[in-house]
Amino acid sequence: MIRPLSTFDDFRNAITAYRLPRVLIAAIELDLFTAIGTEAWAIPDLARDMKVSERGLAILCRNLAMAGLLKKQSETYRNSRLSATALNAHHPAYRGDYLRLITSHWADWGRLPESVKSGLPLDHDEPEESDYRRRFTWAMHHRTLETAPKIAAQIGLRGARTLLDLGGGPGTYAMAFLSKNPALRATVCDRPAALDVAKEIASTHKAGARLFLMPLDFLAEPIPGTYDVIWYSNVLHIYSPKDNQALFLRALAALNPGGRLLIQDAFLHDREGLFPEEASLFAVSMLLFTERGDTYKAAETRTWLTDVGFEQIKVLRMKKGTEDWEGGIMEARSPGTNAKTRERQTRSIRNSQSRSSH
Ligand SMILES: C[S@@+](CC[C@H](N)C(=O)[O-])C[C@H]1O[C@@H](n2cnc3c(N)ncnc32)[C@H](O)[C@@H]1O
User: Fold this and answer.
1) What is the arithmetic mean of pLDDT over 47-71?
2) Same domain as 139, residue 46
3) Is residue 107 part of a domain?
4) What secondary structure letter does DSSP report for 69?
5) What is 109-135 written as a DSSP string?
6) Count of structural domains within the chain
7) Atom 23, ligand 1: which residue's CA is nearest?
8) CATH of the domain at 74
9) 30 vs 248: CA distance, rounded Å
10) CATH classification of the domain holding 261
11) Bridge partner list, 229
């Protein structure tokens, strides 16, 4: 998008940018890429097969070819490599649960004024229902299965024996860390329905034998055990600053001395908290789908971490194009064994506990 929007043309172009996304969503809703499969189709044959109009399909396919998702050759269309795999329900690499999740957002985003007026999510009950949680967890797996190994390859965990994937959902990141670090054991902590999915995924990997499951509501209860590393990925934005501060305190108590908390999220990096664009826009999803969520400035997250006693806080640099979010990984260390730092840690935990009880 061109920014800032300073002329009426800029504004019009920004608003009409919905057109291509709607074309893509229509193709997914009609399951067009599955219908095309591995063949080259002329429009009349495909329209008959899909039971849609020739006129509608011709215009849709022309636009999908313009976007590179279909290959047009004379009067026929075939799938591109991407649409033949991730978008085709007959292919093992199909990412159906994630496609269903993101395409369903079209209708939800249409109701944005309701959430702006009420300050509340569109639906209070659905997210905790176990069938929804299972489908959402598969969607999270489909979303991160390429990113997780790239990130695990860039985060050195030498010396770490235990990792807790807090709110780990499908455990895709935990599995990626296990595959990269043969001496590591990892525990995925989440709700039972999410852990069912993590178990299923782990059973298909050799490294899955080193994956353990911990059903727990980590906001309601302390975290059992201690770990060298806690991976807290894409959870910060679901909760309020107060929830996250309470969680950081719990995480600190669950880390071995010198242990690392790694937070992955859509951090805002400028002073006013507007950029990157993706992180600002993601806050809208949090408004629509969560009761207290938002996206946060890296600077404020750093303050919450310091307040509860974390040290050596920094944003990790990842290779461009390999990240889940731009500048999206923050590392914080639990103080080491040294008596002085331990004392400071205890004092700061006590202070912040008395602050949060006011
Ligand atoms: C957006 S998903 C992120 C999954 C994974 N960490 C990733 O980065 O792809 C958030 C996960 O946190 C879990 N979660 C959120 N709040 C939780 C809580 N209070 N206790 C346990 N799990 C929680 C959800 O069930 C969900 O699986």
Assistant:
1) 98
2) no
3) no
4) S
5) HTTHHHHHHH-S-S-SSGGGSHHHHHH
6) 2
7) 167
8) 1.10.10.10
9) 44
10) 3.40.50.150
11) 163, 260
Tens digits of residue pLDDT in 168-192: 999 999 999 999 999 999 999 999 9
24 in a structural domain? yes
Residue corresponding to tokens 């999206």: 328
Q: Is 140 in the pocket of ligand 1 (CB under 6 A)?
A: yes
Q: Ligand 1 pocket test: pick from 190, 213, 221 the residue with the most ligand atoms within 8 Å of its Cβ.
A: 190
The answer as to whether 201 is a domain residue is: yes
The residue segments making up the domain with residue 35 are 8-93
Q: How far apart are the first and last CA of the chain?
A: 44
Condensed to tens digits (0 to 9), the pLDDT of residues 281-316 reads 999 999 999 999 999 999 999 999 999 999 999 999
* Ligand 1 pocket test, candidate residues 138, 146, 191, most atoms within 8 A of CB: 191
Report the relative pairing of strands 70-73 and 185-190 from DSSP bridges: unpaired
In the chain, the amino acid numbered 231 is W
**In 257-318, where does DSSP find H-type helix?**
277-289, 298-308
Q: Is the CB of 197 under 6 A from ligand 1?
A: no
Q: Is 219 in the pocket of ligand 1 (CB under 6 A)?
A: yes
